Amino acid sequence: MSKTSVCIVGSGNWGSAIAKIVGVNAKRLPQYEDRVTMYVFEEMIEGKKLTEIINTTHENVKYLPGHKLPENVVAVPDVVEAAKDADILIFVIPHQFIKGLGAQMVGKIKSSAIGLSLIKGFDVAEGGGIELISHIITRHLQIPCAVLMGANLANEVADEKFCETTIGVKDQKMAPILRDLFQTPNFRVVVSDDVDAVEICGALKNIVACGAGFVDGLGLGDNTKAAVIRLGLMEMIKFVDVFYPGSKLSTFFESCGVADLITTCYGGRNRKCSEAFVKTGKSISELEKEMLNGQKLQGPITAEEVNHMLKTKNMEEKFPLFTAIHRICTGQIKPTQLIDCIRNHPEHMNRRLSDKITTRMPSSDPLPPKENAIFRKILKCYEMKQYKNGLKLAKQILSNPKYTEHGETLAMKGLTLNCLGRKDEAYDHVRRGLRNDLKSHVCWHVYGLLQRSDKKYDEAIKCYRNALKWEKDNIQILRDLSLLQIQMGDLEGYRETRHQLFKLRPSQHASWIGFAMSYHLLNDFETANSILETFRTSQTVENYDYKHSEFLLYQNQVLQESGDLEKALKHLEEHQTQILDKSVVKETHGELCLKMKRFDAAVPLFMDLIRRNPDNSKYFHKYLEARQLTDSAQIIQFYKEIAAEFPSSLCVQRLPLDIAQGNAFEGLMNEYLKKNLRKGVPPLFANVRSLYVDQSKVAIIERLLLDYLANLPSIGYFTKADQEAGMAREPASALLWTYYFLAQHYDYQRNSLKSLEFVNLAIEHTPTLIELFVAKGKIYKHSGDPIEAYRQLDEAQSLDTADRYINSKCAKYMLRANKIKDAEEMCSKFTREGVSAMENLNEMQCMWFQTECALAYQRMGQWGDALKKCHEIDRHFAEIIEDQFDFHTYCMRKMTLRSYVDLLRLENRLRDHPFYFRAAKCAIEVYLKLFDDPLQADSLTEEADIENLSPAELKKLRNKQRKAKKKAELENAQAAKAEKKKEQYNKSRQQQNQDGDPEAPVLDELIPEKLARAEDPLGKAIEFLKPLQLLSRGLIETHLLTFEIYYRKNKLLIMLQALKRAYAIDSNNATLHGCIVRFIKLLGKCLAGANEYVRIVIQREIETDLPIIGKSNKIVNEEFIARNKDSAEALIAGARVYYDDSSDNKTKAIELLMSSTHLKSFTLSHAQLIYSLLKNGAFGNNESDTEKFLERCRELYPIAIDFKPFTNDSTPDKIETNDENA
Fold it and tell me: What percent of the chain shows pLDDT beyond 70?
């Protein structure tokens, strides 16, 4: 006769205690298999898997610490693996998970198996009733199921203290098998055939225990507690009698009944947590985490399920204790109201009289049927965006004197008004409604929607939470709350909300996916995959469509991110036939093989991908990695073989050039250049520009091109070898493209004269080719002449006015020449009519234009306009984040899960984008300038003392005043015009809202004059700095800007922190060097008077991380110059420190500046910086040195307009005469 195999499904506190008993009995008794499997939900405990800990130490360190489990109890993380061979399945898990686990086990366990439920609780049945857990097990798994309930506190059972228990089983043949498995000298078993009553007692006693805990928390004494226990027992008996008639009264006096009730009411965790709930004021979920190590209280959940049934049957008043406990747990009433709720209990009064008692729902003021039907129509009108009809219907209710202050109607009217743009009225109505009905979930929900429309997400979340106090299971409120939580990055709150939605709608796909994703985003990959796997195994998919395919790819992504590559690979191989995107399958498969060093398996995968798309360079790199090829000759040979198979592939022609050297490179480069020059490929230089880091390759390219140039005009071939080989003559355009390439070649090396020579030859050859004028503009830009650069781009765009790219390029060059008005007119060719180009570009979030505008305004000293553009860019990034709100539900519905996760992660680092960094840097620099040199008030010119002015000075002052007056009049006219446009815009927006779009929050108007006169420039600068500190910590500029701001605020520790981080990135940075010197000076002045603790911290940091700050300025500067003697930027910084330290060092500083001009690292930007410093007196007043420097710069940069002698033709307009820049 075969032995009986046992599996315990669950490993919590109670499950582990039972495992001690079952493990010992199974090993002791011959009719049972020694090995007992125990399903354990896998968790990580201090870096180790819980199953591994249990199987090695034989202790459940999380849920039953200090108690050894029998060695024959084996922890298994897969429920199917644990249960597949079992004859007896002991279920001891939280009851809300029974359906999910049961779905996994369907068809995968023995048909002859029997179940035993130790689970105390119910499940909500369809139609409003409750369903017993044993019934669920029987229905799902098609096996008989008994129950075990009793006065069995888990820790006392584990300590082997004497107790009794009750097993409820109908089949008397099963009774001895189950009894023997559990019976011990200290765990005595009584068998009953009243199965339903036994199970119901085990669930309902947890509700009563919560009431006992409330009594203890309130300090009401033992008499009150005894009354609550007795009334609880009476309601338990009555509940069974009403809903499960036929049960025996004697069952309630077994261990499962009164004994279990007394034990739980005095020592169980439901009582303890309920007492803490009253004393601490914390929520049930918080107490579960603190007191139960994450396990769930069954009392509040069971109370909710029972109340759901009572409410459906309209029997809440018949069970006042159960109802009161549920309302306390959900926050509907205070614990202090418990006794009032049971003071007139039916057990205390005549039954005829008690039937007349009714309890009014606390949620809202109900309307009569007629008005309620109208109210439902209001809701329908809101959903259908028929707002005017909704207002008419609301008026019908509110015009009735009885309901003029009906809260929910006022709230809905307010919501409707908000959609029509009448925001002030909307808030007034919603707040009135809320004041009149604070217990209405509708009012709170509407108030949350109003706050959400104003982007006040934190306030909206509070409103939704208040709404859930009165309607805990409202699906729509929970969904809205989850959307706000994920938008705000509240991942812990999002997980809790998705869990609640999962419990309420376990049959919906989105419930499972959202629940899994909440764990994924918290990096709990094991739990996320467990949920996804449970969902996958519970689905019956007939057609493998795109959604199922995306689901599998998302699950594989979770597995990869968990680090379990083996499992991810196995999953991919198992389900690859169900995934529709075969390229992604192969890419993922190949990547996994590479990460796991399975190179042989990766080779055919990437070769197949190359054959699918031979122009994807990534496939070639991955293939070479898989082949582990390092020899350049072998790699080049591979590319030749592939080229034979795919002769038109661009990758196989270009990629070998990165590897080849010497003669091999020259041969390949020769063929590559000739082929592309022959075809006339405009981006040829851009394709090979990355090769220019190797000077030997640059020399070869130049030699080849000059050889072509020598041969093409004379013989019509690139080389004489081509002519001798009898090849066809090259087309006439080959010479043109050779000129074009050489122009770019020399421009890249900043040889402006030669590059201009070749581009002019190309233009002379073909004067209508747009690319030539673009190249010429770039040459002038790189040579320091932005005026001529934009003129060349203007010429280019005139050749094709319909080319948006050239148009945009021309506008950018105009902005760099400070021609803002011209740039706006240029862009107006492609913007919406009826609106100024600047406004339309702002609406289109054209950030490249606004960034260049901001920099142009900054160069011109128009600080307010520069700040306006920076703030507009900042708002664009905020709008992009807001726009992502709509994708939360869309991605979940369409199952684009991988893209959705990428979107959420992008949102977290969005302001790391270069556009934001440039705008923030510009704004910070402007605010620093305004702090150092605030704008004077206009009235100061009027208060000038004119009595002592000479006639010439007085005339100059009058001219200035006239100009200021004219400017003010012009600004007023522009402001009036802008106000008129704004009114028209608001009217159009209001009309749009009437068509159904909610009113967007009105942002403050960005007025340049107001921005330039900010009350706290440093505070505004910090607002731009914070995202950089969070997302751009790897850029040294972030820390240098931090230093500059807090240097002005005299915050020593923050300055030191910024210097420390910058020093770790680049200790030889020239700007950092200047900051260090300034900080050393400041320390000498301020350290003695600083707080004692500040001094200690600074001295410790200097000793450990920045010893350079402990040196003198002179030593620091000399060491820096010696260390960076080949860096022009470093010499300039060193010269500035010399002169700032002492004006006696002027000669030394000037010599250092002049010596920097002879370095290879010296560039045009360095020359412009030095000239600016000399011109502005940073090294004193010395015209001879300035002129000497100018002569050197004219020699190095003959085209740069900054160094040309002053003439009207050569000097750019620093301040233009158009209205925009007046």
Answer: 93
The Cα–Cα gap between 713 and 739 comes to: 12
CA distance 875 to 142: 60
- Closest by CA to 182, choosing from 190, 173, 192, is 190
- CATH entry, 368-472, from 2.130.10.10, 3.30.2350.10, 1.25.40.10, 1.10.10.10: 1.25.40.10
> Of 886, 907, 868, 911, nearest to 1003 (Cα)?
868
pLDDT in tens, 993-1038: 444 444 455 567 888 889 998 899 999 999 999 999 988 889 999 9
Provide the residue ranges of all domains of the chain, joining segments of one domain with +.
1-193, 195-348, 368-472
Say what the pTM is.
0.65
Give the integer Cα–Cα distance in Å for 463 and 449.
Answer: 9
Q: Exposed, middle or buried by CB within 10 Å (0-12, 13-18, 19+), for 390?
A: buried
pLDDT at 285 over 70: yes
Query: What Cα–Cα distance (Å) separates residue 1137 from each residue in 1078, 1108, 1117, 1140, 1158?
Result: 9, 15, 7, 5, 20
Residue 489: per-residue pLDDT: 87
Distance (Å, whole) CA 663 – CA 694: 15
- For residues 345 and 352, what is the distance between their CA atoms, to the nearest angstrom? 13
Beta bridge partners of 192: 168
Residue 527 — φ and ψ, nearest 5°? -65, -40
Strands 88-91, 73-76: parallel, antiparallel or unpaired by DSSP? unpaired
Between CA 371 and CA 113 the distance in angstroms is 57
pLDDT in tens, 1131-1182: 999 999 888 888 778 888 888 889 999 998 899 999 999 999 888 888 887 7
Q: Which residues are catalytic?
A: 205
195-348 fold = N-(1-d-carboxylethyl)-l-norvaline Dehydrogenase; domain 2 (1.10.1040)
Report the distance separating Cα 770 and Cα 798, nearest Å: 9
Cα separation, 1006 vs 882, whole angstroms: 20
Distance (Å, whole) CA 1038 – CA 924? 11
Structure letter (DSSP) for residue 38: E
Given this model, what pLDDT does residue 252 score? 87
User: How many angstroms separate the Cα of 1052 from the Cα of each of 1048, 1055, 1077?
Assistant: 10, 5, 14
**In the predicted model, is pLDDT for residue 938 greater than 60?**
no
Q: Are 116 and 195 in contact (CB under 8 A)?
A: no
Q: Is the pLDDT of residue 981 over 70?
A: no
Q: How confident is the model at residue 1097 (pLDDT cuts 50, 70, 90)?
A: confident
* Cross-strand partners of 76: 39
Domain 1-193 has CATH 3.20.20.330: no
What is the DSSP annotation of 421-455?
A: T-HHHHHHHHHHHHHH-TT-HHHHHHHHHHHHHTT
Q: For 840, how many CA atoms within 13 A lie in the half-sphere containing its CB?
A: 13
